[in-house]
Amino acid sequence: xxxxxxxxxxxxxxxxxxxxxxxxxxxxxxxxxxxxxxxxxxxxxxxxxxxxxxxxxxxxxxxxxxxxxxxxxxxxxxxxxxxxxxxxxxxxxxxxxxxxxxxxxxxxxxxxxxxxxxxxxxxxxxxxxxxxxxxxxxxxxxxxxxxxxxxxxxxxxxxxxxxxxxxxxxxxxxxxxxxxxxxxxxxxxxxxxxxxxxxxxxxxxxxxxxxxxxxxxxxxxxxxxxxxxxxxxxxxxxxxxxxxxxxxxxxxxxxxxxxxxxxxxxxxxxxxxxxxxxxxxxxxxxxxxxxxxxxxxxxxxxxxxxxxxxxxxxxxxxxxxxxxxxxxxxxxxxxxxxxxxxxxxxxxxxxxxxxxxxxxxxxxxxxxxxxxxxxxxxxxxxxxxxxxxxxxxxxxxxxxxxxxxxxxxxxxxxxxxxxxxxxxxxxxxxxxxxxxxxxxxxxxxxxxxxxxxxxxxxxxxxxxxxxxxxxxxxxxxxxxxxxxxxxxxxxxxxxxxxxxxxxxxxxxxxxxxxxxxxxxxxxxxxxxxxxxxxxxxxxxxxxxxxxxxxxxxxxxxxxxxxxxxxxxxxxxxxxxxxxxxxxxxxxxxxxxxxxxxxxxxxxxxxxxxxxxxxxxxxxxxxxxxxxxxxxxxxxxxxxxxxxxxxxxxxxxxxxxxxxxxxxxxxxxxxxxxxxxxxxxxxxxxxxxxxxxxxxxxxxxxxxxxxxxxxxxxxxxxxxxxxxxxxxxxxxxxxxxx
Amino acid sequence: xxxxxxxxxxxxxxxxxxxxxxxxxxxxxxxxxxxxxxxxxxxxxxxxxxxxxxxxxxxxxxxxxxxxxxxxxxxxxxxxxxxxxxxxxxxxxxxxxxxxxxxxxxxxxxxxxxxxxxxxxxxxxxxxxxxxxxxxxxxxxxxxxxxxxxxx
Lengths: 737, 152
What we know:
The complex is a heterodimer.
Chain A: E1 10-14, E2 25-29, H1 35-45, E3 48-50, E4 53-55, E5 61-64, H2 74-86, E6 93-96, H3 100-105, H4 125-147, E7 154-157, E8 160-163, E9 168-171, H5 172-179, E10 228-234, E11 241-245, E12 256-262, E13 266-271, H6 274-283, E14 286-289, H7 298-308, E15 315-321, H8 324-329, E16 333-341, E17 353-359, E18 362-368, H9 372-383, E19 390-395, H10 409-418, E20 426-429, H11 432-437, E21 445-453, E22 459-468, H12 471-475, E23 514-520, H13 535-553, H14 557-564, H15 569-581, E24 594-602, E25 605-615, E26 621-631, H16 638-657, E27 663-664, E28 667-668, E29 686-691, H17 709-721
Parallel strand pairs in A: 5-6, 10-20, 18-19, 22-23, 26-29
Antiparallel strand pairs in A: 1-2, 3-4, 4-5, 7-8, 8-9, 10-13, 11-14, 12-13, 15-23, 16-21, 17-18, 17-20, 21-22, 24-25, 25-26, 27-28
Chain B: E1 2-6, E2 9-13, H1 21-28, E3 47-50, E4 53-56, E5 70-72, H2 74-77, H3 84-91, H4 101-114, H5 120-126, H6 136-147
Parallel strand pairs in B: 1-5
Antiparallel strand pairs in B: 1-2, 3-4, 3-5
Helix pairs in contact in B: 3-6
């Protein structure tokens, strides 16, 4: 067995320097000593002013980023927040990830590492800005001491300290070492938003250059000295386990070093290269004990969901006012419809992977993760070592979307494999087929909606019964409230117009009589947080049905919504913005046959969309354009916000139009991107995004807008042809009335 | 021992002839800019040029590539990221997570070589690569920018 030789603190992982002269080199911190020792060494190399700011003698500002960059732009946004208060030269800003082990050793100085729920910026803006402001004040104090002048007379701007009266100046780099020894200030006053110079500007991302040359190193690209590669298979029937395998059949195959069990449920082949490992794994005879779920199917579970629509069993009320049932009973007009949305897989383009090195006294894992601290906990548990003997070295993610945060199964597997190969770094990479089979899927639900109208076309009651899967029941049972999963009601939860930020997922509508409840029905398929989470289906159900009610009331869909948005000026503003820019009520041109609207509030932000579609004589859908508006309160980088809007539409529309995970014989039927088709460039509508931050609060960006695109498109289809699509995805359905 | 011509250099490769070119590039030659996404020529993350043609390297075996065929990977597209497509990508901040982008760039570079002034329809047809972050609109805009066919 090869022993890894790794230098004490850092090493250069270098690919073969080959044709084209490209050498792919990067430094990977390796903590041979304690995390604290590592941090101290780092500080000696360049002065750490505080946990968030390191300034090198050449004036380079290194901003520490605890959250993860997975494409959403958080890295750049967080650096903008720190740089704003630091008053540094933006062109000199770089970033680095501290490790969760370093944070643990320093009493969690970097706070939460979790990067999900569109919280990256909105739950850390305060303390990261204070980090920048404190560093600025320490630089000023250092200069004041050196120059013998009051700190209050020193100006800090663009990485230069200056004292007007004496004419003295110094760069941040020159003063950094002295500043690092200054006592941090206790009272920190943050800038008034009206004085922001970097926050609110569309500065270019800090992480683009290496992404256009192939130099960006993702977890799947890591190469450590002496490293072996592993491919894994878990029991394809959820709840099953490994019965037996015949490793003698593959042990002599080229490159194969070991065939190992991974817990009770999986098996891995370790080989010189990943291709050899995968080839041997595919040839390995494996017998699964498929367990109790081997005959489960999507079709059978649909019966359970339908029963949930009318059942009184395991039903939880999520939002209620007035007496919706009585109002429906006595209504002049009653409208009813049943909707459904299927399971979805995250299918991050970079498959799950982690590289682990285990020895009897420590464990290191290099991995893409949305939550470094969760990765550390998983690694320590699998390593059977205390957390302070382990660490996680984060690398940028090739997509996250919720798959790599709460779920650290890939880290657990990598450590379990590496533990059987002591001293040898092992890189575990999933095949796409494994990724399709072992997802943590967007939950499956159905909903029955009933609305009541009076004889003037006014809505008098709204009732929604959701039947389906709870994520929290499976993933975070401690989040249940008396058995109820409150997250199921995202987008239709109780709202307090007096305190608009009290419930980030409160409904924007003032329903006169309302009843929303959930019949919890959990299939054996493991659920997960999938970009946008439950607001995806809630928006489809509510916003589609609002259009159905408007049609029954013979009221314009915009006007019908506006009547219900009376006490929600911010929701009205985003809706009016898309209606105006999208030409609602005006003649359609360029082949557009129908328009549809949607408005939702989620993750603390207000979003709306207007979609324009056509349906060909053969029934083929074309989404021409979506006009989107979002008000996230404060907006840190408008261009990045627009990119999140466009990108979320691709993810959301791919699911609404094409993608579907189905179960047969207890296992996922779709195996790859041929049977699970994401949206492609040719299907992408033009998107016009109105970023309209009105200030005063911090809403999310990465997820809120995803929810408005599908219902706006479904409403546009109905507007175009009269056909109301209620079962998602749209694919293969006749779109003609 | 197979021979490959990659980014202008002739290289010896010791791997089974059934190994996909993708994994030869990544694991034998250390060129990790070419990405694995699906292994079945669906996603395009592994796109390289073979004799100037955009090719999904996961679906090409080592044994099927002749030594004289010219393979170009993202590492060899330009010495310093200065290909017009790369410059346009940087200028317009196209990537999000970036994982699919090297394949996108290779596909776009091949498209421009074929059709220096591509229409929207040309781009729709040539760019079937999958991007889960959803950068498509900026991909399209950056191709037009590089080609000088941007609509004002």
